[in-house]
Each structure stands twice: as C-alpha cells, then as structure tokens.
Amino acid sequence: MVLLQTVGRTFLNFLAAAGRLAIFTTVAVSHCFRPPFYPRLLVRQMIEIGYYSLPVVGLTAIFTGMVLALQSYTGFARFSAESAIPNVVIVSITRELGPVLAGLMVAGRVGAAMAAELGTMRVTEQIDALNTLATNPFKYLVVPRLIAGFAMLPLLVLVADIIGVFGGYLVSVHKLGFNPATYLKNTIDFMEVQDVVSGLVKAAAFGFIITLMGCYHGYHSKGGAQGVGQATTNAVVTASILILCSNYFITELFFAQ
Amino acid sequence: MIEAQDMPDPKIEIRSLYKAFGDNVVLDGLDLDIPEGRSLVVIGGSGTGKSVLIKCILGLLFADDGSIKVDGEEAIGLRGDTLDRFRLKFGMLFQNAALFDSLSVLDNVAFGLVAGKGMARAQAKEVALDKLAQVELGADVAELYPAELSGGMRKRVGLARAIATEPKILFFDEPTTGLDPIMGDVIDQLIVKCVRELGATALSITHDMSSARRISDRIAMLYDGKIIWEGPTTEIDQCGNPYVEQFISGSEEGPISFLTGA
Q: What topology does CATH give the domain B4-89+167-249?
C-alpha cells in the first residue's frame, strides 16, 4: 500500500512538473511574438551565449576532432582503411559530436549561469520588483535568453564543426602522415549539406532547451541560497538529459530510412 | 482622534481577503481601509502575513477570495497588460531594496520611467538624478552598482526608485530592517518627507514599533489572518487591546503565543 502511494505520488508530481513546464514554455514562446521587445538585452545575451562560449566550445571541438582521428586510425589500420578517416571525422563532427558536445558544454556554462542569475533575482525579490515596475519578467528576462540561445547555438556549432575538422586534420597530417591536400579533398568530397544542416537544426533545438531549462528552474527557485544551488543543478541536469533525448529524435527525423 | 467625518475616502478598500498556502491559512477574511493621503502601518509578528497582504494588493500573489479595490477598481482577477497598467499606480520599497544587480544605481532609479512609462532614456536619467538628490544621494553614487552600496544606501536608492514615477500609492516592506537605529531614523524621515511631497497614500509593514510610530498616521495590527485593531497612531498606547498591548510592549506574557508563531 505504501509502495503504491509512493509510486502514485511520484507520478502525480511528475505530471504536475510537466504541466508547469508546458505552461512556462507556452507563455514564454507567446511573449517572443508580442511587444515590447528589448533589443539591447537580446544583444547582450547573444554576446554572453555566443561570444563568451567560443573558447570552451572551441577547445572541446579541437580535442574531440584530434581524438577522433587518432582513435579511428587505430581501428582502421587493422583493415587498411586509413583513407576513411576524413570521412569519419567530418560525418561524426557535423552530425553528432559538434552539436551534442557544444550543447552539453553550453548547458554547463550558460544554463547554470542563467538558473543562478534568475534564481538569485527570485529569492532577493528582484523579479517581484520588475513586476511592480510594470515590466513583465517573461519579456524582460526569459524572452531575450530564449531567442539568443536559439539563434547563437547554431553559429557556435558551425564554428565547432570547422575547429573539430581542423583538429582531425592536424593529427592526421602531422602525426599520422596524411597528405594535406588529399585529406582536405576527401573531407570536402565526403561532406554533405544534410549532415551540416541536421547538426545546425539540433543546435537550435539544444539552444532553446538549455535556455528554457535555465530560465524555468531559475524563475521557480525558492528557499534562499540552497534553492538557487538546487535550481542550478536541476537546470544543467535536465538540459543535458533533454539534449541527449532530443538528439536521438532529431537524428531519426533526418536519417531514419 | 480623527473623527469619521474628517477621514478621507479610502484609496484602498480590502474586504474579506482570504489567502492560504496549502493547509496554512495566512489571510482569513481580512478587512482594511487605507484612507487617501494617509500613512497606515500594519504591524504584526513575523509570519503573520503582512508581506502576503502587500503582495496580494500588487497582484504578485493571487488571493483565493475577497475583494481589493484601489480607486474603486477591483484588483483581484487582473492579469497581463491590465495588471501591468494597474501596477503603475504603485511604488514599492522592498525589504532588502531588491535593486537590480546588473544595473547601475542611476539605471535602477530610471528603470520604472523607461520600462514602465516609456520615457526617453536621457530624460529618465535626469529625473533619476533629481530623485537621488531627494533621498540625499549625490551624483557620485549614480554610477555605482548595488553591490558597492551599504545597507542604508541601498534602502535610499530603493526609495528613490519607488518614488521615481511619482506614484500616488507607496508601499514600504520592513523599511528599517537590518539598519542601525540612526540609519533607521534617517530612512523613516525620508519616507515621511517623500510621502508628504508626493501627497501619496502609504502602506507600510513592520514589526519595528519605533519606526511604525514615526512614519504612520494610523496603525493596524494583523493577527491570525485578520486585522484585530486599527486606529490613529496617537491612540495605540491606550487602545485596550491585549494583543496590541503585548506586541508593543514586547512582553512574552499575553495572549500571543510565540511558541506556535501565532
């Protein structure tokens, strides 16, 4: 009986949380299309998400590309299939590793910062103050972040793709002895528009998910410093899980036969 | 005592206000009138629902039942843009000032003018400097950020932000909490001055009786979700209400049980 009660309560809590998130998402998206708009805040968030995430995303991408080339070589050398390395690197980076790893890194950097900032604003009554100054917190705080995340992640992933492929090139040419011109030619020959586009679509979805989770958990945080810490953790964990789940479904949408 | 015929019409009328959080009933059929142009202070112990009362009037919390009329306009049920417009009537000084960390002092004070009233940024900043001067802060403070201010300065900036749009109703949430007695007195005097200059109706909540006496024309005591006494500040010492007497004397003996928090 106690077990049933626990299962029932957990299930109801899950439904309530899903409902709250669905309402939050609907309200936030609806405010994206209704004035007033705050272009200064949007630009600030774009710089925060896009420009300041470049180092962490770039470093992740270059080492991922380098490791990918190295590991592929180890495996492919057994079958004398080393020439397939440019193919593996470009497909893996553009389809999967670029968007997913950039998404996870940005979730850790930006999602956590957003949850902490909005959470602190909530517990110190700054969000209430916004309301009393006749300013809708969704328009002022949530909308610029959502749009910036949605718009900047694809640009970041595009940069990550280029840097990741360059990482593979560096290792292949300088360590594995590939001919530079041949490697580049093979990379370009194997690159398909659909691979890049699917990665950018994923990036836009991940950008939306990261900022939505950061804003949602921050906006609803309570209970002082501990509540803000909990909100930050929840934002990163839920964004990361949703990135990995949605990655599968978007992949299926593009590539399922 | 102010005779009934001398009392202005109520600016804010609250009737049978009810608000609960789960099983915890915080406001239980509260009735209160706040006369126009007067300063009313609601006193009461911690956790008795004073802040909830203010948040219900401002629509930051939605009351479960009852009526709140401001200038005859029903506040309960307002949503969206209508609620935003309704809130333009109010200025609010929060307990810890609630200044926006990411904005300078000047931008904090000008915020309501730019975002709420649509004033041009340059003009709003001029007005903000005037308001800072009203709370006795110089232009040198204007470019600082909230993290660089002392508690008293934060309260003064919060007060300047509250009066920047020249609202006709001002709310003060625990205006002297966390301040030393001298700074508390300075803030109280500034509150009285600002309310008088604006000709505003003021509602404050506090459990600091010295502050309540300094800034109020009338005092109401909130206990067990209801207003149990309301009258002129000059009469509170002779009110004969045992709850009020215990509260203002700060005695442990009396009908208020501090063990239960009620």
A: Rossmann fold (3.40.50)
Is the Cα torsion angle A116, A120, A123, A126 positive or negative in sign?
A: negative
Scan residues 35-74 of B and list those with Cβ closer than 8 Å to A: 55, 58-60
- Going from N- to C-terminal start, the domains of chain A cover 41-255
Q: Is A224 left (phi over 0), alpha (psi -120 to 50) or beta?
A: left
pLDDT above 70: percentage of residues in chain B: 96
Asked whether the beta carbons of B71 and B89 are under 8 A apart, the reply is: yes
Q: Characterize the bridge pairing of strands B169-173 and B73-74.
A: unpaired
Region of residue B136 (phi > 0: left; psi between -120 and 50: alpha; otherwise: beta): left
Average pLDDT over residues A87-98: 95
Instruction: Give the H or E element holding residue A227.
Output: helix A224-255
Q: How many other C-beta atoms are found inside a 10 Å radius of the C-beta of residue B131?
A: 24
Put simply, the answer to whether B101 touches A134 (Cβ < 8 Å) is no
Q: How confident is the model at residue B8 (pLDDT cuts 50, 70, 90)?
A: confident
The DSSP symbol for B156 reads H
Chain A hits for B92, Cβ within 8 Å: 129, 132
Residue with tokens 């899903």: A18
Q: C-alpha distances in angstroms, B218 versus B2, B43, B191, B203, B229?
A: 10, 11, 15, 10, 11
B49-52: long-range contacts, CB 8 A cutoff, minimum separation 24: B49/B19, B49/B222, B49/B225, B50/B205, B50/B222, B51/B95, B51/B173, B51/B205, B52/B19, B52/B26, B52/B27
B-chain residues within 8 Å CB-CB of A133? Answer: 87, 111-112, 115-116, 161, 165
- Report the C-alpha gap between B201 and B34 in whole angstroms: 8
- Lowest mean per-residue pLDDT among A60-64, B6-10, B131-135: B6-10
